[in-house]
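Q: Could you predict the 3D structure of MarR family transcriptional regulator?
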Amino acid sequence: METTRELGARLYDLLKSVRLIKQRRADDRPSVPLGLVGMLTQIEQLAAGAHARELAEHTGLDPSTVSRAVASLVAHGLVERRADPTDRRASCLAVTPAGRAALADTYGWYGELLDRALADWTPDEVAALCSALGRFTRDLGSALGGRADAASAPADNDNLEAAR
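A: Sure. Here are the predicted structure tokens for MarR family transcriptional regulator:
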């Protein structure tokens, strides 16, 4: 029980740090709206021509949440909707060149931050942390009864691991 409380406290601290990181990134690099780096990353990682429906399934988010996020990314010129050649009623999502540039800049920013934070860590310590976090997110997803891969997906959170 005490170990569980300690883990809960460390997770709280981690979430607080992630919120602070996201806010600082948004202040330093406003090219991607706060909270949308993860969504932009997911669109980039899905095959070209992904539909919002697929994005919602992949991230485990409600379709209305995905729709609002996509609308914001489109409004900022980071994503574009293209006509689906197989279904004229549907549109496909694609990251624009401006979106790719914003992601590259954001990943660079995260990479520099993580390099500073982990400067005193050995490569083995960093690898152990990555491995433990990967296992933890998969197991947490399983414990929640969802898809194990959905729990480890960045969803609408900024993807710190992608920056490494």
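Q: Anything worth pointing out?
A: Helices lie at 2-28, 37-45, 52-59, 63-75, 97-117, 123-143, 148-152, 160-163.
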